[in-house]
Amino acid sequence: MKEGKIVAWLADEGTEVSKGAEILEIETEKILSSIEAPASGILRRRVAGVDDVVAVGGLLGVIGDNSITDSELDSFIAEFQARAAVQTKEAELGPVPETVVVKDQSLRYLKRGEGQEVVILIHGFGGDLNGWLFNHEELAGRRTVYALDLPGHGGSSKQIQSAALDEFAKSLELFMDSVGLTKAHLVGHSMGGAVALRLALASPQRVSSLVLIASAGLGMEIDGEYINGFIAASRRKDLKPHIEKLFADPQLVGRQLVEDILKYKRLDGVERALRTLAGEFCPGGKQAVVLRERLSQLPMPILVIWGAEDRILPVSHSQGLPPNVRTEVLAGSGHMVHMESASRVNRLIQEFWESE
Amino acid sequence: MDRQLTFQQAINEALSQEMERDRTVILMGEDVAGGSGAEGQMDAWGGPLGITKGLWSKFGDRVMDTPISESAFVGAAIGAAVSGLRPVAELMFVDFMGVCFDQIFNQAAKFRYMFGGKAVTPLVVRTMCGAGFRAAAQHSQCLYPIFTHIPGLKCVVPSTPYDAKGLLIQSIRDNDPVIFFEHKLLYPMQGEVPEEPYAIPFGEANFVREGDDVTIVTLGRMVHVSSDAAAMLAKDGIDCEIIDLRTTSPLDEDSVLESAEKTGRVVVVDEASPRCNVATDISALIAEKAFASLKAPIRRVTPPHTPVPFSDVLEDLYIPDAGKVVAAVHDVTSYKA
After folding, report:
1. A36 confidence band (pLDDT: 50, 70, 90)
2. What is the CATH number of domain B206-333?
3. Residue A196 burial by Cβ neighbours in a 10 Å radius (0-12, 13-18, 19+)
4. Would the pLDDT of B38 be above 80?
5. Nearest by CB: B204 against A236, A267, A269
């Protein structure tokens, strides 16, 4: 994600806004999203207008109290814009995905941020590192955050073995070896959650904490129709209804999101990789591996986040987990809760890391 | 930044990857290898514009220079296709296709049908089309409507490097004869192209831009002319949807109708001569199947019904440009019955 277009302001100038309240709707090339107030105060100025296209990191508005004079506001805005212009130039040369080769397999990843603590983001079935577009930069504020493409996905090798999930956990560990990480916080979405969980069970000493977002591996049920439909669809019209199922609000699904998935699915070897994976991961429309009973054995802190309106993996999988697991269910979000409620998910994850 | 290639490099990469993958893929055409066989001559050219440069060094005899006789080598390619190879013949300018019409129209296009589905003809003819190259009336035509007209042929008109690679790979893997049109002015165009091979299915139009006010249906280089027009119109608050057909046969009727029904206003932009071209075909389709949705008559933006002029000034006037598309969109948005 490089920029967003302002669709609507949800708060008037001069009104009070509280931290976390949605104050703006924006449209990105992938989906519609909202922006929450980063702080409580008076919305003193709306800098960006409706239909303006604003680069990531650009100034949307100013929140402050009424003691700030208008001229102080003006000079703050002018200074910010001047600084942003320089940063935009630098951002164009920003991080680009890299690849490492582990066991004859190339793995693509994108690294952002600097910090002692290291995080790895692991996408779900059919996804890739770009699925973290609303999270990656935000989470990388004080940490080094890697987003990884699993084998068979994104820009990684498309050959996968039949023991795919085990292979993925192994690939993740080998990836950590090859970029020199002894330990990392893992954040996994959907199938990526199950991969993170497997690594945590196999090598707990390498996992500082686990964030499982709408994670696989916590129950048998899965929408098998989604999996089969996703694999079979080779055209926009066939794929779109399946992608819409991922969100509580299907209107969020933009043309670019569907097109990007089609671009991935058209690559030689992808269909076979997805079929191999689905055959192991959810044969006959049921998850083959349920690790819920083993969560209590894990020594590291665990946070589970779910969208209340998830239509792929039921929200009931987030309930009844052992007491060492913290659970957050977000109303009004579907399976892609980290996209649909990005600010809330980012905040929950950061608070979780800070508290542990 | 994502990997960038030119349209020309994307075509070269598609040929190279398919030749790597499948030993039955061969290339033939005038100067596609590039020399007479003398030392240092081979691979000098790679076709008149260097599109196949480097392939002879990789694939040797599978890249064949032919005599300057389109009727002979296109016929030979068709023969090779029916006997087990997947030839890609380069017919320099589509304007020269007239001398091999029988081979293409009455032989290659008919084999599957005449032999009760038992014969396949996996042939690709790559050919240059389009005006703006200062190459005058005999090297500048957009003759894809003629090939679209013939049942049994598939007809591909890519607009971007990404589509050029994916559609050419699909063309080579397809079991029917495909005519693949490369607009000369697109060759230097840069765009994102994945390194891995991929195939774009035929009959799947691309929504280049989404909008609610007017549908612009177009193809080939005119996609970019239409995008420029849409950017200008957006400043006036007119939101255009642009559909790039990608292939004229098969044709993605569903996408065209879906968009026409949504906006109710349609402009079709086509660089081919106006009689019996893609613009007329699309207009007829919408008039027949989405008439009740229309809020204004369909407008076509095409060149005039004349040969492509040699004079630079007249050639520029001949080719549809963004200004003409903008004017047509204003016509349909301001229409009052």
Report:
1. confident
2. 3.40.50.920
3. buried
4. no
5. A236
Comparing CA positions, the residue from B245, B246, B293, B248 lying closest to residue B266 is: B293
Q: Do B4-192 and B206-333 show the same overall fold?
A: yes
- Burial pattern B24-44, b for ≥16 Cβ within 10 A else e, equals ebbbbbbbbbbeeeeeeebbe
The three-class DSSP label of residue A160 is coil
Chain A partners within 8 Å of B166 (Cβ): 266
Burial class (CB in 10 A: 0-12, 13-18, 19+), B49: middle
- pLDDT confidence of residue A25: 86
Q: Is the dihedral of CA B266, B272, B273, B277 positive or negative?
A: negative
Q: What is the mean pLDDT of residues A192-204?
A: 96
Nearest CB to B207 within list A235, A255, A268: A255
Is CATH 3.40.50.410 the classification given to domain B4-192? no
Q: Domain ranges in chain B?
A: 4-192, 206-333
Please give, rounded to a whole number of angstroms, the shortest distance from the CA of A263 to a CA of chain B.
8
Domains of chain A, each with CATH number or no CATH: 3-91 (2.40.50.100), 98-355 (3.40.50.1820)
Q: Quote the pLDDT of residue B211.
A: 94
Please identify among residues 169-198 of chain B the ones whose CB lies closer than 8 Å to any CB of chain A.
Answer: 194, 196-198
B170, closest residue in chain A (CA to CA): A266
Structure-token pair, residue B6: 């030119």
3-class DSSP state of B25: strand
How many Å separate Cα A36 from the centre of its chain? 17
> How high is the pLDDT of residue B1?
52
Peptide bond into A97 cis (omega under 30): no
Minimal C-alpha gap between B6 and chain A (Å): 18
Two structure tokens written together for B134: 């200062």
Across the range B208-223, mean pLDDT stands at 97
CB-count exposure of residue A77 (10 Å: 0-12, 13-18, 19+): middle
The pLDDT of residue B210 is above 70: yes
Q: What is the rounded average pLDDT of the residues B126-133?
A: 96
Q: Which of A184, A200, A211 is nearest to A294 (CA)?
A: A200
- Global pTM value: 0.86
Q: What's the complex ipTM? A: 0.90
Strand extents, DSSP E, B184-290: 190-192, 206-209, 214-218, 240-244, 247-249, 266-269
Q: For the purposes of burial, counting CB atoms within 10 Å of the CB of A15, is it exposed (0-12), middle (13-18) or buried (19 or more)? A: exposed
